[in-house]
Design brief:
Pseudouridine synthase, 8 helices, alpha+beta, nine-stranded mixed β-sheet, elongated, five-stranded mixed β-sheet
Length: 310
């Protein structure tokens, strides 16, 4: 079957974001596959991987909304979880094989708080071997399962907030607010090294991902039931609501030009260099546009484009 015939066989429907409360044991790709069945479309992508051990809000971009991830204004992640001191594992979390156990006395609460505070701000992390990061086109987790260990370049991430919420040795309860791409598993391992006793991530729950909050998420069981009753699309969050951009309403001629990739004028004064969400006359999101000097709007991403005119 050709790509064209696959697209034509897809069930038509709305674009937007679906929030899933990922259960433990599911991979993020498992959730994507389930959503493809629920919504009858292959055009589904997730916004930020959650490990199988982790639970919580996993935003899914549906249909044309898959084009919008680079334009989300808020991409911070909020987690709550626990770290077990004294035990190191190969995956850096509770699903892995134990590598080492620390036999000495575990640190006092004050030492744990001090060590946690040292991670605030911009730090460097080495991606774990058991991760989806690719090395020469091969996912690291595949190499790890083959018993291979390769050098990984550190990357910069940002920890905006990290605080101790409980400590009953060996368990450290913490809350973390961080940039996308941060591995809380690596944070746990680095904490164990800093304290000299080793550690791994015991559990993790994502409370928020960018503008999407856990309270608005549905379980897979709830979404499967909504599919059976034909109500699942009522749970889609409109893309324009999630973008967090100023809104510009286009007229019919302006919308036609934007669909052809052309610049249009802006009726209101907007700050040059900013971005706006441009709506069609019927109120549907048409494009993300950049504000140029001279009250001009340039399309950055058009959701419903057409071939350029001759």
């Amino acid at each position: 079957m050709t790509k064209k015939s696959r697209r034509s066989a897809e069930k038509p429907g709305a674009a937007g974001f679906l929030l899933v409360d990922k259960p433990p044991g599911w991979t993020s790709h498992d959730v994507v596959d389930a959503a493809r069945r629920w919504l009858g479309t292959r055009r589904v992508g997730h916004l930020g991987t959650l490990d199988p051990l982790a639970t919580g809000v996993l935003p899914l971009a549906i249909r044309a909304a898959t084009k919008l991830a680079p334009y989300m204004t808020d991409s911070r992640k909020f987690y709550i979880g626990s770290i077990e001191l004294g035990v190191e594992t190969d995956t850096l979390d509770a699903e892995g094989q134990v590598l080492r156990r620390y036999e000495g006395a575990l640190p006092e609460k004050g030492a744990v708080e001090k060590a946690l505070s040292s991670f605030r701000g911009e730090i460097e992390q080495v991606p774990p071997m058991y991760s989806a990061v690719k090395q020469s086109g091969v996912p690291l987790h595949r190499l790890a399962r083959e018993g291979k260990h390769v050098e990984r370049a550190p990357k910069k991430v940002r920890i905006d907030r990290i605080e101790l919420v409980s400590y009953r040795a060996p368990l450290v309860g913490l809350r973390v607010e961080c940039s996308p791409g941060t591995y809380v598993r690596t944070l746990a391992d680095d904490l164990g090294k800093r304290l000299g006793c080793g550690a791994h991530l015991r559990n993790l729950r994502r409370l928020r991902s960018g503008p999407f909050v856990l309270d608005a998420a549905m379980t897979p069981e709830q979404l499967a039931d909504a599919t059976e009753t034909g109500n699942i699309e009522q749970y889609l969050i409109p893309a324009v609501d999630a973008l967090g951009l100023a809104i510009v309403q286009l007229g019919p001629e302006e919308a036609r030009r934007v669909k052809h990739g052309c610049e249009v004028g802006a009726s209101a004064r907007l700050a040059a260099g900013g971005r706006v969400a441009a709506l069609e006359p019927n109120g549907e999101l048409l494009a993300v546009m950049e504000v140029l000097p001279g009250r001009r709007l340039k399309p950055l991403r058009v959701l419903q484009s057409v071939a350029p005119p001759d």
